[in-house]
Amino acid sequence: MSERTAYDAIDRYDSTTYYLCGPTAMYDFCLDALQRLDVARRRVRYEANGPPTEPQRLPDWPSQLSPATTITVSINGRDKFTAPCGEPLLNSLERAGYQLEVGCRSGLARRRPGWAHR
User: Fold this and answer.
1) Per residue, what are the HEC states of the chain?
2) What Rg do the C-alpha atoms of the chain give, in angstroms?
3) Burial class (CB in 10 A: 0-12, 13-18, 19+), 98
4) Which one of 32, 36, 60, 73 has the fewest beta carbons within 10 angstroms of its own beta carbon?
């Protein structure tokens, strides 16, 4: 898909909400193209397929927070580990040794009781 193809497919981009679904590289391309077409960022939504490459560029990212800043994650007030702010929580949990019973890696959004355990 080229930027021209996207432009030709857009009838009235001044009042449309756009929903993107695909790989992260496609998001970067489409977000840039829509920005050049003066589509307001609030009119663009996208599926979370993988972590963003630069989370600090997301519109809701706190400007004073570096992705490298570490936080302490507490599991039910008992177990704790540190994680960088720029790392997806799912990745942080797996890195800390938790096995999650979710379908995120397979593309299925589901949760079962007792979802996190070591």
Assistant:
1) CCHHHHHHHCCCCCCCCEEECCCHHHHHHHHHHHHHCCCCHHHEEECCCCCCCCHHHCCCCCCCCCCCCEEEEEECCCEEEEEECCCCHHHHHHHCCCEEEECHHHCCCCEEEEEEEC
2) 18
3) middle
4) 60
Tokens of 44: 């663009």
Per-residue pLDDT at 7:
67
d(CA 94, CA 100): 7
Yes or no: say if 57 and 28 are a contact pair by the CB < 8 Å rule: no
CB contact at 8 A, 97 and 75:
no
Q: Is 29 exposed, middle or buried (0-12, 13-18, 19+ CB in 10 A)?
A: middle
Record the pTM: 0.50
Query: What tens digit of pLDDT does each residue of 62-87 get?
Result: 999 999 999 999 988 889 999 999 99
Contact by Cβ (8 Å): 51, 91: yes
